[in-house]
């Protein structure tokens, strides 16, 4: 039996509202990755979850791409980045991933932060490989996943953290930025 890993209440025992923080579902142990696995991060659950209300989302599964699913790469196509199948380049899921970012941005205007799976074509934050059009070589490794790119259009100052940054210093800074964003939103 799996333990519940996120708070369903948005208030603490002292009555304070917990800031809403999105999280890539795979990072809290949900088996939603393209390979049907998860990337559970105990540090996230121990050090961050007690301070926020986690909103687990997987843009690829929400977009109906299935579990498991064929892997997807980001490619540079002229002046735009597209998400296409690694093994089936005719499979283009660009619109699906961008739409999920737009929907989440509209549905959850109170988002105060996001914790992401690095290198993901949907959730990567300055870590996703961008390939050339025929996927034969990597142009750079600092791309944003398409879901994240849309969230950043909606919330340019949204604090973000990825699974490579779950050390005490990054976590402390992230939680402080989340708290500040929550306070700003309360005063708007």
Annotation, overall tally of beta strands: 8
Secondary structural class: alpha/beta
Question: What's the main sheet like?
Answer: 4 strands, parallel
Helix content: 25-40%
Count of helical stretches: 5
**Which regions have little confidence, pLDDT < 50, spanning 5+ residues?**
1-8
Count of separate structural domains: 1
Shape: globular
> What Rg, in angstroms, do the CA atoms define?
17 Å
Order of SSEs? EHEHEEHEEEHEH
- The rounded distance between the terminal residues' Cα atoms is 42 Å
Average pLDDT: 93
> Biggest sheet: strands side by side, in what order?
2-1-5-8
Instruction: Kindly estimate the percentage of residues that lie in beta strands according to DSSP.
Output: 15-25%
Structural commentary:
28% of the residues lie in helices and 22% in strands. It is an alpha/beta fold and 188 residues long. A hairpin with a 2-residue loop joins β3 (72-77) and β4 (80-85). The longest helix has 19 residues, at 168-186. The N and C termini lie far apart (42 Å). Mean pLDDT is 93; it is low at 1-8.
Topology record:
Layout: E1 20-24, H1 42-48, E2 53-57, H2 59-62, E3 72-77, E4 80-85, H3 94-107, E5 111-116, E6 128-131, E7 138-143, H4 146-154, E8 160-162, H5 168-186
Parallel strand pairs: 1-2, 1-5, 3-6, 5-8
Antiparallel strand pairs: 3-4, 6-7
Helix pairs in contact: 3-4
């Amino acid at each position: 039996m799996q333990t519940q890993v996120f708070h369903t209440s948005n208030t603490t025992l002292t009555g304070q509202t917990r800031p809403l923080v999105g999280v890539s579902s795979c990072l809290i142990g949900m088996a939603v990755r393209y390979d049907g696995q998860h990337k559970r991060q105990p540090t996230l659950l121990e050090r961050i979850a007690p301070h926020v209300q986690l909103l687990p989302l997987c843009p690829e599964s929400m977009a109906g791409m299935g579990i498991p699913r064929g892997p997807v790469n980001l490619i540079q196509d002229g002046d735009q980045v597209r998400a296409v199948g690694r093994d089936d380049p005719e499979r283009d899921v660009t619109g699906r991933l961008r739409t999920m970012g737009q929907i989440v941005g509209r549905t959850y205007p109170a988002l105060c932060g996001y914790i992401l799976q690095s290198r993901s074509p949907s959730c990567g934050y300055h870590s996703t490989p961008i390939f050339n059009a025929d996927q034969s070589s990597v142009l750079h490794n600092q791309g944003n996943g398409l879901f994240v790119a849309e969230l950043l259009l909606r919330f340019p100052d949204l604090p973000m953290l990825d699974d490579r940054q779950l050390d005490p210093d990054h976590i402390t800074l992230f939680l402080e930025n989340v708290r500040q964003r929550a306070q700003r939103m309360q005063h708007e």
